[in-house]
Design a protein that fits this description.
- A hairpin with a 4-residue loop joins strand 2 and strand 3.
- It is built from 2 helices and 10 strands.
- It has a single domain, classed as Beta Barrel (Lipocalin).
- It is globular, with a radius of gyration of 16 Å.
- By secondary structure, the protein is mostly beta strands.
- The chain is about 10% helix and about 55% strand.
């Protein structure tokens, strides 16, 4: 795969349990999954209405121990009467674009967050599942990195009519501590 580091990190955050590798990783990954709280079953149509529109985005991404700063933009549309949200993310300076697709499982009251890289055009399964509690949306996903379990957390917060923030953190110790890895400051265009 020829995915950029940005694509790999974004996709990683959006994926829910990719499976386990050979060599006994199943136990470690299962422990990480148990340490992650079940997503809040609070989803309802319109939860992502705050994101509809045109946005300018200031990115800060941890890259080999130092913070990389770059600009981006996004167009977001609410679909299906608020049961879905489609985000087209563009980072012109990096010749990068992708699509976030968020769909509400109305019965389970959970949001599925999917990702598509424009270079491949392929929906990256499985989705990450999450929801909003008190105006903060949280999505956790688990995977292995070098045979060790990792939890990725993506959070929507600081939501106002003209701005919001999405940030990502990584836990290598089952959710006891977190290290920020990416922050996106969204401002309505």
């Amino acid at each position: 795969m020829n995915d950029s580091p940005d694509e790999i990190q974004r996709r990683t955050m959006l994926q829910m349990a990719l499976g386990v590798t050979a060599g006994g990783g199943a136990t470690a990954l299962a422990s990480a999954q148990e340490a992650t709280a079940a997503p809040a079953a609070t989803g309802q149509p319109g939860d992502f209405e705050f994101l509809a529109g045109e946005w300018k985005i200031k990115h800060q991404r941890l890259n080999n121990g130092s913070w990389d700063h770059f600009e981006g933009e996004a167009t977001v549309r609410s679909i299906l009467g608020g049961v879905g949200s489609v985000e087209e993310l563009r980072i012109p300076a990096r010749n990068f674009s992708g699509m976030g697709l968020r769909l509400l499982d109305v019965e389970r009251k959970l949001w599925a967050d999917h990702w598509v890289n424009a270079k491949s055009g392929v929906l990256t399964p499985p989705p990450s599942w999450g929801g909003f509690v008190d105006g903060v949306g949280t999505w956790d996903s688990q995977e292995e990195d070098g045979g060790k379990p990792v939890i990725w957390r993506g959070v929507w917060d600081r939501i106002t009519p003209t701005s919001c923030r999405w940030w990502q953190a990584r836990s290598d110790d089952g959710g006891r501590s977190w290290k920020d890895t990416w922050v996106m400051q969204w401002t309505r265009a």
